[in-house]
Structures are given as structure tokens and as C-alpha cells.
Design a protein that fits this description.
Layout: H1 7-23, H2 28-40, E1 46-47, E2 51-53, E3 56-62, E4 70-75, H3 81-89, E5 96-100, H4 101-108, E6 112-118, E7 124-130, E8 138-143, E9 148-149, E10 155-156, E11 158-163, E12 169-175, E13 181-188, E14 193-197, E15 222-227, E16 230-235, E17 250-255, E18 265-268, E19 274-281, E20 285-292, E21 295-302, E22 321-322, E23 331-334, E24 344-351, E25 354-362, E26 367-373, E27 399-400, E28 416-417, E29 422-430, E30 436-444, H5 445-448, E31 455-460, H6 476-479, E32 484-489, H7 494-503, E33 510-514, H8 520-524, H9 532-539, H10 545-554, E34 567-573, H11 581-594, H12 597-601, E35 603-608, H13 619-628
Parallel strand pairs: 31-32, 33-34, 34-35
Antiparallel strand pairs: 1-3, 2-3, 3-4, 4-5, 6-7, 7-8, 8-9, 8-10, 11-12, 12-13, 13-14, 15-16, 16-17, 17-18, 19-20, 20-21, 21-22, 23-24, 24-25, 25-26, 27-28, 29-30, 30-32
Helix pairs in contact: 2-13
Organism: Ensete ventricosum
GO molecular function: serine-type endopeptidase activity
Protein name: Prolyl endopeptidase-like
Amino acid sequence: MSDTGDPDLVDYLGRENAYADSFMADTFDLRQRLVGEMKSRMPDKVSTPPEHWGPWSYYQYIPEGREYPVLCRRLRHPDGYAKALLDYMRGCHREEILLDWNEIAEQFGYVHIGTCRISLDHKFLAYTLDISGNESFTLQVKDLHSGHVIPNSKMEGVVSLAWAGDSSCLLYTVCDATQRPYRVFSMELGSGHHLRKVYVIDTEHMKDGLWLLRERVAGVQYFLEHHYGFFYILTNAPLESTSSAAEGYYLARCIAEKSLTAEWQVIVLPGQDISFQDMDIFHGHLVLSIQQKGLPLFCSIDIPMSVNSEQPMKLENLNPWFFPVPSCLCSIVAGSNHDFMSSIYRVVISSPVMPDIIVDYDMGKREFTILHQEEVVGLTEKGESDSYGVAFPFNFTITKLKKDESLEDGQQQSWTDLSEAFSCERIEVVSHDGFMVPLTIVRSQKAKHTNQSPGLLHGYGAYGEVLDKSWCSDHISLLSRGWVLAYADVSAGGLLVGAAINIYHSLFSAVILKVPFLDICNTMLNPCLPLTILDYDEFGDPQNQADFEIINHYSPYDNITQGCYPSVLVTTSFHDSRVGVWEAAKWVARLRDKTCPTCSQSVILKTNMSGGHFGEGGRYLHCEDFLSSKDTDQDSPG
């Protein structure tokens, strides 16, 4: 069943899809109604505020009625907006379309842009393209003057890329047969010549020699940024007092010319309940991405730093500026922030009750500016019914966030949220083993005072990631019908749900498993599959007897028992390179065999035959994807 080239497998999945469509046929009208609601909340045209970089302003927009964005730019005018508008009316400084996702989708039927980088001289655009959904990306470089892709720039299996300082050379990593990056290449534009480089490279002086930053050590990771003769390093390398990797990342520094581990200076260790996630560096500032008890935060630190102490400092001693955010914040994502010389850092902040807000934080002045907030069509201040006749069970009012401790004095600005209509609260619940699990609960204010409501519990948390709790207008269709949404920040996703229903058959009315990892033992005994070797650190190595026994104890496929199970919907993708489509198919077949005839009829397998692990990418197609994984009657208990 693991041979996706076998026509019998394709036929089997097709028959499963036909059964799923037949089983859900009586929900067709409801699903169409919900899709209509979701699409009606989307504005006809979506655009982002321009990001200024050098002489250009870069921005994206989704044209009216289209699925995908268009990347554009236009020249900035030094004399301000009025002069720029006049020049535009005269035909000067016209918009340049750099990349149109829609054209690619029309040509190939599917599009996923992985990485997109403009050269520092603004003459070239390098991007990676997936047209099948299997996350195998092809590098292409576009000459922005001619508008054509450079023919000899196309390279298969590219994972990441970066431009050299003089823009004459592009560095990129390629993956092996298991999609693990293992080589770094150098492309000299126009020459077709590729140089293999596998060490730290000074991008300003490509041929002046190489040096090894650090020998590889099992379990140790480090990420570095260069800043005027120093490397700033985010790492979990062992500290002097220990021989094993640190529990989390800390910030260190070393002189670039003498980058031996023994000479690293530990600058700051994370405090209690704080973890460092990432960093970004600019001419005068270093930005740290932080999580505090699972909540995201950003802070900036002025650099260069005057750090003379031999002992690590506390973060507060570096005079950090924590970016002011609303108290209801659940998600904060960095923008592209290309301009190294800029003191402006752009982020998108969001929560289940606050549509996405684009904010510029001025790290020099320690001020912020709200640039744009996502429009939600159909929600009126008077709580009127939308065009599909769904009356919201509350008086809907758009409100301004009240003054709270998360905003500093003198920085009060308007954050539009929907907190008078919806409630979003974060609590901690005790797990069976005593661990505290963060749980975010979202519901309408009316449902908050109802004793019993249908509920949808989301669970995910593998690879150090937490559940996405950003704004999603599609959820209004559930919340307005009295549903309660809950997000548990736990380990794994489909594996978690599969294991839970093996142990607690009767606890759930229905379960949904999206591209789930279910046959852990068999999958991880095959090192030729993508992610298997990387997953040894996450789940253990089943070739080790002790690890095998632990994995086998919770593996969903290996622990299905006789008895009645809840109704199950499993969604999978044929071109998924992360989790094989056969895992879901095998699990569904075994579950049907083990359960009673009544239960086995309501075990449904739905396979996307064209998409990958993340489904379809278009904004309207996303509505279809959203519903395909939430086919549930509005009156069903949860």
C-alpha cells in the first residue's frame, strides 16, 4: 500500500472518496451554505501596506476574484506622497509585477512558493516553486529588468537560499533523497557555473577562504547572524558547567575572525518560563522572538552591546524593549524586514477574536504604528444578519481595546477586536501525569453563559511548534451557531488524537484527523522516508529496543482495540511527502475491522488527490479545505 505508483492504490483511494461523498451527501446543502458564508466575509481585493527597502516599495495584493497573491513594487519618491502621486498620473513610477502566483497556478494547476528573495541590488528575484504538492521545490531566478526567468538558474530540490553581498552570487542548499538539506551550492549568475561550499562563507569576499565555526555535536544546534565583526549565536550548546546540550536556546557572541567555541561569550540565558525561539539582526538592533508560557513576544535590544561580564546577564539588564501588544494576543509573526539599515520592524499580530493587524515597531524611538487591519465583510456594528440569513446570537459591536498593562503610557493606539462579541480566554488544565497544559477557549459571549454547547477541541504541538491561534474568519460560522472552540498546546496532532480515542472510546462524539501520523513503528523503521531520521529526536529510534517499546505502547495503529469508536473523519493527501497517504488508509481499514458494524460505517477516509501536506493554497480553495475537515452537523453534540 506504500507504493503510490500502484494503480490499485489509486483505485482504492478513489472508491474511498466516493464512499465519503455518499456518506456525507445529506450535508451537501449545509456545506454549500457554509462555503458561501465564508467567502462572503472575504473582501474582493486584499492588499498589504508597502514595505520600503532602498529605492523601492514592495507589496502584495490578491486581485478581485483570484485565489493567490501578486508580488509588486514601485519606485519611492524622495519628495513624498504628493509628488509620487503626480508622477504616477504622468506614467512615471508605474507598478512592476514581479511574481504572479495565479499565472503559475493556471499553468500547472497547483502552486506553492517556498522561499522568495530579492537581491540586494534589487535586480533579481530568486524563488523556490512547488507545482505538485510534494514539497519538492525548484529554484528559479528572474531578471527583474527583462521580466524573464534566467534559463540556467533552474535547480531541483532546493530548500533555502541567500544572496551574496554584491548580488552577483546566489547561495542555496539542496536536499538528498529523504528531503534533508545536505549541501550548499554557489551560483554565479550568467556563468552557469556552480561551486560547492559546505562551510561558513564570507559573502562579501567569497574566495578569501573558509573556516569551520564548530564541529558537529549530536543534539546541538546553533543559528548565527553577523554584525560588524561579531557573530551573534542562538544555540543550545553545552555550557561550561555541563557536558550535555542546554535545555533551550541562549544568546552568545564571538569575534568573527576567532569563532572557536571556547571563545564564545554567553550573553544572556532565558529566564524561568521563557524560551528564545529566533533572532533577527539589523544595523542598530537585535530582535529576539520569545515564548513565555507558550505566549509569543518580541523584544529589541540595542547593539553593539557593551557586555564585559564573564557571567551571563539577565535579559532585563540589556534594556530590552518588549513590543507593546494587546492583552488578547495569541499570534505574532515577523514580516519580511529585508532592510538591514532600518530601525523599523514589521509584524502581524492576531488572535481568535482580533483580525490580523500589521504593525511597524520603531526600535529607535520605541514607538509603534498600526498600518492595517484585515477587513471582515458582513459583520456590522448593529449585529444585522449577513447576506446568507445567519443571525448572529449577540449584539455585535466593533470595539477599541481598552487601556491595559500591555500598552505603555503615551502609546495608546486603537486595536480593533471583537471581544464584545466573542470571548477568548487562556487557562491551564492538569494532565493525568501532573503537567499543566495551556488551553485557549473561544466562544461567543452568549455561549459563554450556556451550560452545554457543542465543542471542537484542537490538539497539536510537534517539533517545538504550538497551535496556530491566529484570526480565522471561517470560525465565525461555528461560533455564531453556538460552538465552543478550544486549542490544547500539547504534543503531536493526529498521533495524539489517534492515541486518545484508543484509550477513551466514549469521551468523544466524533474525531477529525488531518494528514495524521498513525503508523509510527513501521514508518520510523524505514530510514529512506522523509523526516524519519529527524523524527528520532522527536519520538525516539524504534531500532533501539527501549525506544521501540515506548513507541509501540502509544502508536495509534498498533493499539486499536475491539469495541465502539466515535465517528471518524480522516483527511489525507496523495502527494504528502511528510506523512504517507498509506498510513491513513491502513489505519482506517484496521479500525473498521476492529469496531462493530455500526461504528465501522462512520469511519470515513477523504484523500486530496492533487494537494500536499498543507492542502490547497488558494484563499477560496481554503474554504473548501476548511469544511472538508469539519464536516459536522450544527446540531451534533461535541
